[in-house]
């Protein structure tokens, strides 16, 4: 238990001085009385001393007591610090700083004290998107929007006191191991991250290429999952294009960084040279990024004069952004969205649907409807804070609600199965979450005889041995190492071949072509 010292009570020295003075003054009063009695006439009646000059004695005792009390109070009176604001809201803060600098029992790091005060000030807003970033955190934030960086490649945010995945980045280690939007991160390398800010969590998760980090996450409807992830360089490229079936062009946008607009323009030029007859824009698993990029990119598809975005400030005023593009792209288009489509991704999805009539296919988006700005200090630390709400072209605020697609489409159930760590061994007799995931993967790969109960039984062992024989692996009936990696590799390939959301988007697009 902490030992508290209440500043309004006398300390030991005060108590000692108080006792000493009281006892000394009591002794002096007795001496005064004796001296007085010796020099004045008195008589003794019934055990009571009666003096001729009683009033003088009484007055003398009262005066002595008052003087003594005044001296005592002046010594033991607790020291008070004036923190009256006098209209200055920062007077209390400065007074607290002075108190700690003068009276704290250890040396104080002034920089930490000041940074702690700034951090506390921003945290009091109770806004997960407003944060103070020290020098290292500000550097990390800048890298995330302007260049490649080393880490696991996942956008995270704070929500109701927890850190959750917004979306893994395409081709990143986070995507490869199977992290999903809205997975709640509980631990990083066996340490709880409860109470940490987003930036503090990021600093724990990021690291040099080739190093490993262990995450424990909680997934709704599944429970706790364990992921060991090898960090890598997360590339700058954010736009990927290709020509798929029936001369349809597909563009996937993974985030909105400083170069994304240029990348999109080049991808569109390349596809036009291929003479594509329709276009699918894939915004799935896109965590967002820079608003100005979302505006510029949306403008390519929205006719001049149509709304792209509205921004509402705290005084209620609104700023409306309209397209100024004289020649919007004239092709049949559909847009793919899901629960990992957030922020700038939602801006673009809403603009293309509401102002260009482009249908949205997939699942409801994440739901982030606020705008942030970042201000840097001389030491390169910075504060990122929410400045406004953003609204869709028709004035809807989608914050914490998301955008519903016009055509709903889900991925196969095995798309949501968790990553299985190749370092663990699953064998006959085991009963755990990983066994259940492995059984579902085997069933999806065509091994129908396997039971899906989460218990590694005879049917599971037989299915594993059959799988190992088929793929020329060591046949021992255990799921570990190369066997685990091969199972997950084949599941990923199957998912790419059976992208039911993309198939739906193609179907919708063909109706317009």
TrEMBL record:
<dbReference type="InterPro" id="IPR041489">
    <property type="entry name" value="PDZ_6"/>
</dbReference>
<dbReference type="InterPro" id="IPR036034">
    <property type="entry name" value="PDZ_sf"/>
</dbReference>
<comment type="similarity">
    <text>Belongs to the peptidase S41A family.</text>
</comment>
<keyword id="KW-0720">Serine protease</keyword>
<dbReference type="Pfam" id="PF03572">
    <property type="entry name" value="Peptidase_S41"/>
</dbReference>
<keyword id="KW-0472">Membrane</keyword>
<dbReference type="InterPro" id="IPR004447">
    <property type="entry name" value="Peptidase_S41A"/>
</dbReference>
<feature type="transmembrane region" description="Helical">
    <location>
        <begin position="57"/>
        <end position="76"/>
    </location>
</feature>
<dbReference type="InterPro" id="IPR029045">
    <property type="entry name" value="ClpP/crotonase-like_dom_sf"/>
</dbReference>
<dbReference type="InterPro" id="IPR002477">
    <property type="entry name" value="Peptidoglycan-bd-like"/>
</dbReference>
<keyword id="KW-0645">Protease</keyword>
<feature type="domain" description="PDZ">
    <location>
        <begin position="134"/>
        <end position="220"/>
    </location>
</feature>
<keyword id="KW-1133">Transmembrane helix</keyword>
<keyword id="KW-0378">Hydrolase</keyword>
<dbReference type="InterPro" id="IPR055210">
    <property type="entry name" value="CtpA/B_N"/>
</dbReference>
<dbReference type="Pfam" id="PF22694">
    <property type="entry name" value="CtpB_N-like"/>
</dbReference>
<dbReference type="Pfam" id="PF01471">
    <property type="entry name" value="PG_binding_1"/>
</dbReference>
<dbReference type="InterPro" id="IPR036366">
    <property type="entry name" value="PGBDSf"/>
</dbReference>
<keyword id="KW-0812">Transmembrane</keyword>
<dbReference type="InterPro" id="IPR005151">
    <property type="entry name" value="Tail-specific_protease"/>
</dbReference>
<dbReference type="InterPro" id="IPR036365">
    <property type="entry name" value="PGBD-like_sf"/>
</dbReference>
<dbReference type="InterPro" id="IPR001478">
    <property type="entry name" value="PDZ"/>
</dbReference>
<dbReference type="Pfam" id="PF17820">
    <property type="entry name" value="PDZ_6"/>
</dbReference>
<protein>
    <submittedName>
        <fullName>Peptidoglycan-binding protein</fullName>
    </submittedName>
</protein>
<feature type="transmembrane region" description="Helical">
    <location>
        <begin position="20"/>
        <end position="37"/>
    </location>
</feature>
């Amino acid at each position: 238990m902490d030992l508290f010292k209440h500043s309004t009570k006398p300390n030991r020295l005060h108590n000692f001085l108080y006792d000493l003075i009281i006892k000394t003054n009591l002794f002096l009063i007795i001496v005064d009385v004796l001296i007085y009695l010796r020099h004045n006439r008195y008589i003794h009646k019934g055990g009571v001393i009666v003096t001729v000059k009683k009033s003088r004695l009484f007055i003398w005792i009262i005066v002595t007591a008052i003087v003594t009390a005044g001296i005592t109070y002046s010594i033991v009176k607790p020291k008070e610090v004036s923190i009256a604001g006098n209209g200055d809201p920062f007077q209390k803060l400065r007074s607290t700083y002075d108190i700690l600098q003068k009276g704290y029992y250890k040396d104080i790091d002034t920089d930490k004290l000041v940074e702690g005060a700034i951090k506390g000030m921003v945290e009091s807003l109770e806004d997960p998107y407003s944060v103070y970033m020290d020098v290292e955190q500000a550097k990390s934030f800048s890298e995330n929007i302007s260049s490649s960086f080393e880490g696991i490649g996942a956008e995270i945010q704070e929500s109701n006191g927890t850190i959750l995945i917004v979306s893994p980045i395409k081709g990143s280690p986070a995507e490869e191991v199977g992290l999903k939007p809205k997975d709640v991160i509980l631990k990083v390398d066996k340490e709880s991250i409860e109470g940490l800010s987003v930036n503090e969590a990021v600093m724990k998760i990021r690291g040099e290429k080739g190093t490993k980090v262990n995450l424990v996450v909680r997934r709704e409807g599944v429970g706790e999952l364990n992921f060991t992830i090898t960090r890598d360089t997360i590339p700058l490229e954010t736009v990927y294009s290709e020509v798929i079936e029936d001369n349809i062009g597909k563009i996937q946008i993974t985030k909105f960084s400083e170069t994304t607009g240029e990348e999109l323009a080049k991808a569109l030029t390349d596809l036009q040279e291929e003479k594509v007859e329709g276009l699918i824009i894939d915004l799935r698993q896109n965590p967002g990024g820079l608003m100005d990029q979302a505006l510029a990119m949306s403008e390519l598809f929205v006719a001049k004069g149509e709304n792209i975005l509205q921004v509402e400030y705290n005084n209620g005023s609104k700023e409306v952004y309209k397209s100024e593009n004289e020649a919007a792209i004239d092709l049949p288009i559909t847009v793919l969205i899901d629960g990992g489509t957030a922020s700038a991704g939602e801006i673009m999805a809403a603009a293309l649907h509401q102002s260009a009539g482009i249908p949205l296919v997939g699942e409801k988006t994440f739901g982030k409807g606020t705008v942030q700005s970042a201000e840097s200090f001389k030491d390169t630390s910075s504060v990122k804070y929410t400045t406004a709400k953003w609204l869709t072209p028709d004035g809807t605020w989608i914050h914490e609600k998301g955008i519903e697609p016009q055509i709903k489409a889900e991925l196969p159930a095995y798309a949501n199965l968790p990553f299985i760590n190749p370092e663990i061994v699953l064998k006959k007799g085991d009963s755990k979450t990983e066994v259940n995931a492995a059984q579902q993967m085997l069933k999806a790969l065509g091994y129908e005889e396997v039971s899906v109960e989460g218990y590694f039984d005879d049917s599971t062992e037989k299915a594993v041995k059959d799988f190992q024989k088929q793929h020329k692996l060591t046949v021992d009936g255990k799921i570990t190492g190369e066997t685990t990696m091969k199972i997950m590799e084949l599941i990923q390939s199957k998912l790419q071949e059976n992208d039911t959301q993309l198939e739906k988007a193609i179907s919708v697009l063909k109706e317009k072509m």
